[in-house]
Amino acid sequence: MTISTRVTDMLGITHPVLLAPMDLVSDGKLAKTVTQAGGLGIIGGGYGDEKWLSRELDAAGAARIGVGFITWSMARNPRVLDLTLERQPIAIMLSFGEILPHADKIKRTGARLICQVQTLEQARDVVANGADIIVAQGAEGGGHGISRGTFPFVPAVVDVAKDIPVVAAGGIADGRGLAAALMLGAEGVLMGTRFYASSEAAGATEAKNRIVAASGDHTIRSILFDIARRNVWPAPYTGRLLENEFTARWRGREAELMQNQESEATRYSTARSANDFKMAGIIAGEAVDLVTEILPAAEIVERTVTEASRLISGASNRHKITG
């Protein structure tokens, strides 16, 4: 089954399913697999690690993939964008910063410019500055974001975007989420947590197992992990992760953690290297409730589209409308 939208037409893909560019998780292998399954794989360029990015672009080979960046990280290493554009990706996705300094360079190469937003003000800004596709990210998603809920935020962005197609993100992990997003006016979905728990994702097996076992009730939005990584984001951004012993110890004591940042950051770095997730954070969204097993990424794409197609085609048969 296929679902065709302006997003599939614009990106030259079969299914309106995009891989979220999760830092260090959405690597070349995972991106390539999602693309080969008919979606769009997007490598997580994250904070601009040039060596890692070069290796993962090589791993993706000739697959039509995109690359996503935390936008302000490119100010620290502008070369990562040039390095990426030399590989002729189908799209560049920018999140969390000003797109204006980069938009023209990206679009001149023929790459599509995908911009992720968390507020309507940001949506208006990317509309004015050349976004080809807008990702409306709700706070239910894993990783950094703000506070808007996906369900009311997506149609509001659709209204602001006018002729620019919108992709929904945040709390989407199956065909029900894709069908709902299409009903809200979006023309595709971007999924992170569901693909984190895939066979090909670069995350540790223990992290994937914890996502499968987790409840959305036990995810939190916090700056605790950013403090421990010595990488506190500007307000109002916080990050959603799974609760663990580290959050239980420090939640509500952020100021005290800042005072102990040096010693805790050393412990946290050691825990990350050892895949000790009692302390190290696992970025995951509220959709963990819908993730019940680790699956091949291609199967995730297929199941999502098949379920959405069935729901959409059968919707009129399940509801009686009178009057």
Would you write up a description of this structure?
The chain is built from 15 helices and 11 strands. The chain has 323 residues and is of the alpha/beta class. Helix 3 packs parallel to helix 4 and helix 6 packs parallel to helix 7. It folds into 2 domains: 220 residues, Aldolase class I (TIM Barrel), CATH 3.20.20; 69 residues, no CATH class. The radius of gyration is 19 Å and the shape is globular. 42% of the residues lie in helices and 15% in strands.
Given as residue ranges, the uncertain stretches (5+ residues, pLDDT < 50) are none
CATH class of the largest domain equals Alpha Beta
Radius of gyration: 19 Å
Helical amount among residues, as a percent range? Answer: 40-55%
Mean pLDDT: 95
The best one-word shape is: globular
Number of helices: 15
Largest sheet: 8 strands, parallel
Count of the domains: 2
- The second-level CATH architecture of the largest domain is Alpha-Beta Barrel
Percentage of residues in DSSP E strands = 5-15%
Features:
globular; TIM Barrel; 15% strand; alpha/beta; 323 residues
List the helices and strands and how they pair.
Blueprint: H1 6-11, E1 17-19, H2 28-36, E2 42-46, H3 50-60, E3 66-70, H4 79-85, E4 91-95, H5 100-108, E5 112-117, H6 120-128, E6 133-137, E7 143-145, H7 150-161, E8 166-169, H8 175-183, E9 189-191, H9 193-196, H10 205-213, E10 219-222, H11 224-228, E11 238-242, H12 245-250, H13 254-259, H14 261-273, H15 297-318
Parallel strand pairs: 1-9, 2-3, 3-4, 4-5, 5-6, 6-8, 8-9
Antiparallel strand pairs: 7-11, 10-11
